[in-house]
Design a protein that fits this description.
single chain; alpha+beta; globular; Beta-Lactamase
């Protein structure tokens, strides 16, 4: 099957079945690949295009207008072609824009104490999924796209063998043009996808 066909959505699915279908298709796409850049690129594309094909989100007023990842800056590969004198100074804790689908987005999000703000930073720091019905009412909301009305953000949580608790390494972020565009069914489906993505990659 061509890779693009994984975003074809069968007719008649309810939302629970839709997210199960996307999870299954993503598992096939990620099989045999461990690079996180490659896998997050395919994950964001599959989720975004699957939502555009799903009747509940296909309408223009309810469209998901952004889907992608922000990743801990420490996980980005270090430049290999710069000279030592050009080595950048250490930066405070932050998330950098990763693979996504949608309009251009904020390049970085601060997550260090005293600087963290916005839905992505809070989901990352709290290590909890945040479902925001109205982004304009959310304290510290960062407006990457003024058309966005609601948002859901799932942390990417990695359990290392030598650590007792899970470590947040990034977030999966979705924006919608409608108020209350996402619900708990979406949150649960995306949490399963977030876990699948983390487990499928070498970090």
């Amino acid at each position: 099957m061509p890779h693009a066909d994984s975003a074809i959505i069968p007719a008649g699915l309810d939302k629970e079945a839709f997210w199960s279908h996307v999870h299954e298709q993503l598992g096939y796409l990620l099989a045999g690949q461990r690079d996180w850049v490659t896998n997050l690129a395919n994950a964001s594309s599959l989720i975004y295009n699957s939502l555009l094909a799903f009747p509940e989100f296909a309408d223009g007023d309810r469209m998901v207008n952004w889907c992608g990842f922000y990743i801990d800056s420490e996980l980005f590969p270090a430049p290999k072609l710069i000279s030592p004198k050009d080595t950048p100074a250490p930066q405070p804790a932050r998330l950098l824009l990763g693979p996504f689908c949608g309009k251009p987005a904020c390049q970085l999000i601060h997550v260090s104490p005293g600087k963290a703000r916005g839905v992505c930073a809070d989901a990352y720091c709290q290590k909890e999924t945040l479902l925001v019905k109205d982004v304009d009412a959310y304290p510290g909301h960062i407006a990457c796209d003024g058309e966005t009305k609601s948002e859901v953000v799932c942390p990417l949580l990695l359990k290392l063998p030598n650590e007792e608790s899970e470590r947040a390494i990034g977030v999966l972020d979705l924006d919608c043009l409608a108020l209350g565009g996402f619900d708990e069914v979406d949150s649960r489906g995306l949490e399963r996808i977030a876990k699948l993505v983390v487990d499928a990659c070498d970090w």
